[in-house]
Amino acid sequence: MLNVIGSLSLALARHFQSGGIIVNEHVLNQEQTRRHVDVLGRWFDFIHLNDLPVRLSRRNKKPFCLLTFDDGKRSNATIVGPELKRLGVPAVFFVVTRSLGDGKPLWFDRYWALRAKLRTVPSALRLHVLKQLPYELLTARLERACSQYGVEADLSNDDVRPMTWEEARNLHRQEFSIGAHGETHAILTCETRAAAFENIAKSIARVSEEIGAPCTSFAFPNGNYTTELAQHAIRCGAETVMTTEPTWLDESFPLWRLPRVQLFGKYSLGKLKLKMAVAATGRILSNPDGTGKNYRVFNRFYGRSARLNPAGSLAVSKEQAETRTRRAIDFRS
Q1: Lowest-pLDDT range, 131-145, 176-190, 234-248, 279-293?
Q2: What is the radius of gyration, based on Cα positions, of the chain?
Q3: 75: pLDDT confidence band, cut at 50, 70 and 90?
Q4: Helix (H) or strand (E) segment spanning residue 86
Q5: Any idea of the CA torsion for 211, 90, 245, 95, to the nearest 10 degrees?
Q6: Interatomic CA distance for residues 185 and 171, integer angstroms
Q7: Residue 307 belongs to what H/E stretch?
């Protein structure tokens, strides 16, 4: 039933909605990759990152789909990339640059390992609490907890283990795009302005250096962004900047604020279709850390004109980020 509802909803959305969709994935197995490509390919034209500006400026009979994968997990290089190549589907892989260099797990993989062992984590280690912390405080808190409970992320699992730079270069050689996803996967709106600027700049520069070609796209970790941070990514060389606002995009969105709809491998066919159809309505869903609320306020107050203005208001202001930092320090003490 959900599959039928999803198909009807998506058919209506495709008929009335212009533009297309940027899909935000993380890890998929081979069967999930094929299934997502099959479902998306029935409704959308798959495009390369370089094709995006042109497709935004013209209307086609069929909307477009740009596939993106965040975090740079090894399974992206060993499973997803080869399957997409076989199917002839382009994609962007956004990598966390420090983890590709040191091979260490990302902070949220350590969190999920801790959660799996403890079942219920203490209030100070709840995910929505951790996401309000500056990166140094967040990782220090997780480090103490993992040490206390004898827990560590499983690096034998390629959905946890980061890919290497050589694997990223191999994806680039196969004509996939490699984008920057931050140096450390810090939630940049929780960092100081200087730290966030440095994180963005280092990640874009490192990708360019490692793949031997300009890094032209940046995706905000956790999707949290401000106009100031997005514009900084553009100054650092990015031509497109991705958020996680779950909606379709058209020419009204500037290239520094591109929405993406998150899909997951466990979704049924019906849920895949229905989520894309709901995204076409422009409805912004709530997120546990409040970003959904901020996106809704941004869109309601500033409307479409703000999407065209690079100097638009901040979705999360610098003052709010500094307040979060102070609260985090107070919480820790």
Answers
A1: 279-293
A2: 19
A3: very high
A4: helix 81-87
A5: -20
A6: 21
A7: helix 291-308
Q: Residue 4's CB: how many other CB atoms inside 10 A?
A: 10
Tokens found for residue 266:
């466990």
Q: Residue 301's domain spans which residues? A: 2-105+155-332
Please tell me the distance from the alpha carbon of residue 11 to that of residue 14, in angstroms, as a whole number: 5
- Ramachandran angles phi, psi of 241, nearest 5°: -130, 130
Amino acid making up residue 56: L
The pLDDT of residue 270 is: 85
Tell me if 129 is assigned to some domain.
Answer: no
Reading the block at residue 42, the tokens are 């029935």
If phi > 0 it is left, if psi is from -120 to 50 it is alpha, else beta; for residue 253 that is beta
CATH of the domain at 225: 3.20.20.370
Tokens of 195: 């730290």
125: in domain: no
Does the pLDDT at position 199 exceed 90?
yes
First-to-last C-alpha distance (Å) of the chain = 52
User: Residue 193 has which token pair?
Assistant: 């302005």
Q: Match 């039928």 to its residue by tokens.
A: 4
Q: How far is CA 165 from CA 73, 77, 100, in A?
A: 11, 10, 6
d(CA 284, CA 278): 9
Residue 126 region by backbone torsions, left for phi larger than 0, else alpha for psi between -120 and 50, else beta = beta
In the chain, the number of structural domains is 1
Return the sign of the alpha-carbon dihedral for residues 207, 212, 215, 219.
Answer: negative
- Whether 60 is covered by a domain: the verdict is yes
Instruction: State the pTM of this model.
Output: 0.84
Residue 49 in domain: yes
